[in-house]
Design goal:
about 130 residues; mainly beta; Immunoglobulin-like; five-stranded mixed β-sheet; four-stranded antiparallel β-sheet; 9 strands; elongated
Length: about 130
């Protein structure tokens, strides 16, 4: 009978620990994104920045701020359930810049438990059209 109560207590503790709530935690697949090389006359593209909510509670993205007018936020998943993936949809127009290396960023504001602001960098190399 003693072993039965020990097994019952162990199962109860396992169920309690597995139901433990973890606060939302945003995790980006990349925070330093290389967009590659592109010609200045063909430098208008879209890109989806993917993330995962590593917590159990809902992750809420309040805002996404681009660092310049050349990056436009076309939308994002506002609420992402625990363990699920989401995305921030961007359009960038680097054709206004001369050839060379370019770095821009977006700042994501959320209720993530580790930080309320996360910066994601976009890198590209612009070249003259052939």
């Amino acid at each position: 009978m003693r072993w039965f109560s020990s097994i019952f207590v162990a199962l109860f503790l396992l169920a309690f620990v597995s139901c433990e709530k973890k606060p939302p935690l945003i995790s980006f697949s990349q925070t330093d994104i290389d967009l590659g090389t592109m010609a200045t006359n063909d430098a208008i593209h879209t890109y989806d920045v993917e993330f995962t909510n590593e917590g159990n509670d809902d992750l809420v993205i309040q805002a996404v701020f681009p660092s310049c007018e050349c990056v436009t936020v076309e939308g994002f998943d506002t609420i992402t359930s625990g363990g699920k993936k989401g995305a921030i949809h961007l359009r960038y127009n680097f054709s206004i810049y001369p050839p060379g290396d370019i770095e821009r960023s977006i700042t994501v504001t959320s209720n993530s438990s580790d930080t309320i602001r996360t910066e994601v960098f976009l890198h590209a190399k612009l070249k003259y059209a052939d």
